[in-house]
Amino acid sequence: MRKTIESCITFFSWGALFLLLMALFTLIAYLIQKGADSIQLSLFFGDTTPLDALLLRRQVFDGLFPAIAGTFILIACSMLIAIPIGVAGGIYMAEYCKGKLKPLFNLTFDILAGIPSIVVGLAGLLLTILLNRHFPRQIAPCLLLSCLCLALLVLPYLIRTTQTALESIDPLIRKTAPALGASRSQNITLVLLPHSISDIISGIILATGRCAEDTAVIMLTGVVATAGFPRSLLGQYEALPFYIYYISSQYTGPEELANGFGAAIILLLLCIGLLGLALWIQRRFTTFLLFR
Amino acid sequence: MLRSYSPSEYLFFTAAVFSGLLTAAVFGFLFFFGLPLLQSGQLADVLFSSWAPGKGLYGIYPMLLSSLTLATLSMLISFPISLGCSFIITALAPLRLRRVLLALIRVMTGIPTVVYSFAALFFLVPLMRNLIGHGSGMSILTAAPVLALVIAPTMILFFVNSFNKVSPRFTLAAEALGCSKIQKILYIILPQAWPGVINGILLGFGRAMGDTMVSLMLAGNSTAMPEAVTDSARTLTAHIALVLAFDFDSMEFKSIFVCGLSLYLLTALLMLLFRLSTAYFSQAR
């Protein structure tokens, strides 16, 4: 009887794996089959010549260039805001935080990590409404607001990965420099951080991937379907994930739909590329805390 | 205890406190905007009545129900699959294949949900339309398998990680006594690591509740009370995402904060349970 159950479970496990991979590859193969043809230069730049578009001499109207540029600016700004705070917070959690404060902070960051991204976006929208009461008509959802909200979204990931990276350092390495007379901050900056830098960087790249894919936050905080190349941080902008969502509900013909499939492939490649880079930097396939 | 604080410590402390305050600030915003509704005693109305703006009813009960149904259904699909896959990755497969599979699952965590939903919208929805036989093909039943695919890597990674934490003393002893791989998992690893399985379920459920794009694009967004899983339905997250369609002073808009608050409190509760069970089980050992 036992033997039967055991072999049933083995069989079932392989079946589960097969089912998961089947589902994954079916969707991706479908995506590639539908979108591969549309990936050409005109998908990016429309009728404009690439050089003109890249030098911002002419606006691109029917290409993905503004959306891709918007996504990259969005990623860069949010990471610029999130990295210093996240890494500093992570260093505090790993090296300084003691006593009763630690479980409290741990729980707080867990909650922050668990907040659905749409709620983060809603909080951003509420911020603008609140500010509008005091400064009428000056504040509107914009690129900067989206960056702030995305930074908030990835903050717990950065704190956690930095904390885990520092906490998993061998005690032998941790204690050598202080024993030789180094101060605590010298130990952190000269020994601990350099030692765990690859883990911290791969955490940062994972957070970048999260910024690139998130649609819910930017939907409520300023992304629009057509805005052209983002001219200012206080203006509206286009982004790749929102373009895909927009096409899915508003496409007018097979050509636009093909563009949507093309955009989906590009976003997929971008996110997988970032993840692959993180894995490559980390070099070993240890699992992270916060398995999103 | 007297200690001298260095300036850098203050800097790090400020960053941590700031991040902590932001968590509270998000709650504060939602609470502040939801306050008029809470004060006027309409909370029960909003939570437990149906959505019919024509009749002056702005209840989010259908959305709450859809969210819970969708999350539960996708967990029911995803949990056995994730557990099976984690068995394979922990022990059943040959070592090299395990590494490849683990890397693949990690890459899966990075696939944007909007891409999954986009592909499923044009692939799965027509299939479901034929299968169900009525409606647009967008339903809870359409969104559930896609959501299951989205949350599976999260759970698999968590399961594998907690399985790997089981001390090699036990597993090596079991192997020395001649037990097979599946026996090792079922009788040694699983009894040791089951708290990890429960925590993985909590995390997965939180992620299923919080996902916006899958339900927004595949579940159909009908505000009617879903009567079967083949009905079109709108989740809490999708309801918030459609907020911009409303006037900012309207009752519709106010109901959004109750959605936001319920989601916030629900995920916070899941996280609290997660922390408590982690602390409890690590003490018990």
Describe this entry's structure for a reader.
The complex is a heterodimer of chains A (292) and B (285). Chain A has 292 residues and is mainly α. Chain A has one domain: MetI-like fold, CATH 1.10.3720.10. Helices cover 74% and strands 0% of the residues of chain A. Chain A has twelve helices and no strands. With 285 residues, chain B is an all-alpha fold. Chain B has a domain at 78-234 and 268-284: MetI-like (MetI-like fold). Helix content of chain B is 76%, strand content 1%. Chain B has eleven helices and two strands. Chain B has helices at residues 7-39, 43-48, 61-92, 95-109, 113-132, 140-164, 168-176, 181-210, 213-218, 236-241, 251-284, and strands spanning 51-52, 57-58. A two-stranded antiparallel ribbon of chain B has the order 1-2. Chains A and B meet through helix 1, helix 4, helix 5, helix 6 and helix 7 of A and helix 1, helix 3, helix 4, helix 5 and helix 6 of B.
Molecular shape of chain B: globular
Question: Under CATH, the topology of one domain in chain B is which?
Answer: MetI-like fold
Q: What would CATH call the architecture of one domain in chain B?
A: Orthogonal Bundle
CATH class designation of one domain in chain B: Mainly Alpha
Radius of gyration of chain B: 23 Å
Distance between the termini of chain B: 32 Å
Instruction: Compute the average pLDDT of chain A.
Output: 85
Q: Please, what is the average pLDDT of chain B?
A: 86
Distance between the termini of chain A: 38 Å
The total count of helices of chain B amounts to 11
Task: Choose one word for the global shape of chain A.
Answer: globular
Strand order of the largest sheet of chain B: 1-2
Summarize the helix and strand pattern of chain A as letters.
HHHHHHHHHHHH
Number of DSSP strand runs of chain A: 0
Largest sheet data of chain B? 2 strands, antiparallel
Show unreliable segments of chain B: none
Helical amount of chain A: over 70%
Protein chain pair with the most extensive contact, residues per chain: A-B, 96 and 96 residues
Contiguous uncertain segments of 5+ residues of chain A: 285-292
Structural class of chain B: mainly alpha
